[in-house]
Amino acid sequence: MANTNLEDVPSENLMTELLRRFKCSSKPDKRLILVGPPGSGKGTQSPIIKDEYCLCHLATGDMLRAAVAAKTPLGTKAKEAMDKGELVSDDLVVGIIDEAMKKPSCQKGFILDGFPRTVVQAQKLDEMLEKQGAKIDKVLNFAIDDAILEERITGRWIHPSSGRTYHTKFAPSKVPGVDDVTGEPLIQRKDDTAAVLKSRLDAFHRQTEPVIDYYSKKGIVANLHAEKPPKEVTSQVEKVLSQ
């Protein structure tokens, strides 16, 4: 909505859009990075932060796919790398972030999710922002114990045709392993098994701990207690961002 002209906005939405712009105009600019292992709650909190602070959400995977689909010069380069089965270079990803940040919806700043994953990427991101006279304001670290994550994730079961989800501990089905509505069997996603989770967590710790150290030295990391219920995590985030 932020990049549309007001005359293009249908009149019934006009008031909402004007109120949104008014609310956003008083918000401070914020450039945030969310860091956390799979299942730590980043996906729950980022839309709340995005709306509250009028930021745009830059998920690098989605942005790459969008750039490839839009056949932008960077997208074309990225596609060449992907077609060869190579990783898209850090410079390319930073270039795509640079491009995305120029959108009007990113005027107040952004939330970066899934990047940087390495210290080199963090340095390249900082260099790019520096050229624009900007910097990362806060790194929100969704800190959570591996054992809690394992319980959260490996307990998830899904009814494939409806997408209904259950959790053996937090939201069990009436009959174990069976969907409440249809009585059909529940399945577990491949990613939700203990073995897959362990390798994802190992990779996360190996790659990302150095990134957290890198930003800690700059004094901009806020450690959140991500094992707490979502509402409590939201209020922790609000506290951190109001400082």
Automatic annotation (TrEMBL):
Q: Which reaction does it catalyse?
A: AMP + ATP = 2 ADP
The record's section on Pfam families has: ADK, ADK_lid
Keyword match 4Fe-4S = no
The UniProt keyword set, sorted, is: Kinase, Nucleotide-binding, Transferase
E.C. number: 2.7.4.3
- What are the residue boundaries of the Adenylate kinase active site lid domain, all occurrences included? 156-191
* Matches recorded under InterPro entries: Adenyl_kin_sub (IPR006259), Adenylat/UMP-CMP_kin (IPR000850), Adenylat_kinase_CS (IPR033690), Adenylate_kinase_lid-dom (IPR007862), P-loop_NTPase (IPR027417)
Q: Which SUPFAM superfamilies match?
A: P-loop containing nucleoside triphosphate hydrolases
Q: What class of enzyme is it?
A: transferase
Please indicate which superkingdom the organism of origin belongs to: Eukaryota
Instruction: Say which family it is in.
Output: Belongs to the adenylate kinase family.
Task: Describe the subunit structure.
Answer: Monomer.
According to its UniProt entry, the function of this protein is described as:
Catalyzes the reversible transfer of the terminal phosphate group between ATP and AMP. Plays an important role in cellular energy homeostasis and in adenine nucleotide metabolism.
Q: What name does UniProt use for this protein?
A: adenylate kinase
Its source organism is Cicer arietinum
